[in-house]
Amino acid sequence: MIRFENVGLRYGMGTEVLKDVSFHIPPRSFQFLTGPSGAGKTSLIRLMFLSLKPTRGFMSAFGKDVSRINPAELPALRRRIGVVFQDFRLLDHLTTFDNVALPLRVTGKEEADYRTDVVELLRWVGLGHRMHAYPPILSGGEKQRAAIARALITQPELLLADEPTGNVDPPLARRLLRLFLELNRLGTSVVIATHDIGLMDQVDARRLILFDGRLEISE
Ligand SMILES: Nc1ncnc2c1ncn2[C@@H]1O[C@H](COP(=O)(O)OP(=O)(O)OP(=O)(O)O)[C@@H](O)[C@H]1O
Fold this sequence. Notes:
The protein is α/β, with parallel strands linked by helices. The protein has helices at 41-48, 74-78, 96-105, 111-124, 140-152, 170-185, 197-200; strands spanning 2-10, 16-25, 30-34, 56-61, 64-65, 81-84, 158-162, 189-193, 206-211, 214-218. The strands form 2 sheets. The chain has a 6-stranded mixed sheet, sandwiched between helices.
């Protein structure tokens, strides 16, 4: 569903931060993206989320060559991808329920059509009791789960999560991992960027490993 062939990325006139990166994310697959700080994980996630374009090489998303995608097609393609950012990006003036519902609301859906889905998803991530709370009073782990629910509400085919267990204690990290595995079992491809070797060791999954912008794959 996502394919990279010899992709390079540089910001402005800087040196390349990704070099000759080639890989494929198959449907229904589960993988970790790892590597030292500054190796390029977030940059790779931004490319996969189509918020950056490669500066060289070939990249396709859902069968479309990204260099030929016109800007009007982008929102529909992005809705097929859920993303959990490192800094959550929740809106403080909206309740947890409204934050999670936002991706549906922007497509013009009425609350009556999505209310049950949002409540069910909030319960699934363990936030049923927090749906009327505003983000500033949520704990780090609750914010994390709200961001995950918001990424999942459109039922994306691909979930990208950047350090989703970076701000939570080990029991909650294990719980989030079980949630991602369950999501994958239901058919979504999952890419988890993480430094956490203990987390990766809990699952026998493919590892995409970045070193200084170059990718190695450990099956
Ligand atoms: N917007 C930007 N403009 C210029 N350089 C950038 C930008 N974003 C990232 N970089 C550079 O690109 C390189 C890769 O950064 P990136 O954030 O992708 O790494 P990372 O592996 O996600 O790091 P971390 O694990 O610390 O989050 C770094 O050298 C960083 O300084």
